[in-house]
Design goal:
Structural class: mainly beta
Shape: elongated
Low-confidence stretches: none
Largest sheet: 7 strands, antiparallel
Mean pLDDT: 87
Number of helices: 1
Length: about 220
């Protein structure tokens, strides 16, 4: 769904929302079938699935002191603000091991651990496990693990960008523009995925992030 307002009275904005579900039986070429004799058992949520995606944007020309008729307008007026808000669901994942537990030989890829309980947890502080580690156990040697593919989700992502521009009208439609853009205005951390390696000391934990605030300044001349 999308909603768009074209520029009227100096204001324009748009909102777009996507609700989707993607399934397949092979997003990642390094995957191993949980049961080599039942290829259909690998059908599930795609690694590429993002259930919710929301993007909103706006541009607003501030109404005071617009135009270039007076020196006061040129120096103090002709401001614009703009922004973009983005949100999307986290990437799906499964708990696997690089060990060849099933004994199928070299190049077997990552094999599922057995799911034996409810793996989902209420998400509190990020020092806590992202999912229930005790819900997964190593399969018996010579067997494939049983686990619904991509039944868990990593942290989602959201960010707000903001820009402010000052236009200095020159002549004949020409203008000098001073622009400041702030990416991730609120300095909100973008958490990376939880560790899915059951033999790692950080198994189940989110240990890193990205997305620090960045500020960019520029001066443009349009003619």
């Amino acid at each position: 769904m999308s909603l768009e307002r074209r520029s009227t009275s100096g204001l324009q904005f748009g909102v777009a929302y996507t609700l989707s579900r993607a399934k397949d039986d092979g997003s990642n070429l390094t995957d191993t079938l949980p049961d080599a004799y039942n290829p259909g058992s690998y059908w599930g949520i795609s690694d590429l699935d993002r259930t919710h995606v929301l993007i909103a944007n706006y541009i607003y020309e501030l109404p005071f002191l617009k135009g270039h008729e007076r020196l006061r307008n040129r120096l103090l007026g002709n401001w614009e603000i703009s922004g973009v808000f983005q949100y999307q669901s986290g990437a799906p994942f499964s708990v696997r091991t690089s060990d060849d537990v099933a004994g199928v030989g070299p190049g077997s890829g990552n094999q599922f651990y057995n799911l034996v309980g409810d793996a989902k947890l209420p998400h509190g502080a990020f020092e806590d496990p992202w999912f229930n580690k005790d819900a997964f156990v190593r399969p018996t040697a010579g067997t494939f693990g049983v686990q619904p593919r991509n039944s868990l989700r990593n942290p989602g992502f959201w960010s707000t960008d903001f820009g402010v521009r000052k236009n200095f009208p020159v002549r004949d439609g020409q203008r000098l523009q001073l622009r400041m853009e702030v990416f991730n205005l609120l300095n909100h951390p973008s958490w990376n995925g939880a560790s899915t390696n059951p033999t790692s000391g950080s198994f189940g934990l989110v240990t890193s992030k990205s997305g620090e605030r960045q500020i960019q300044l520029s001066l443009n001349y349009a003619f």
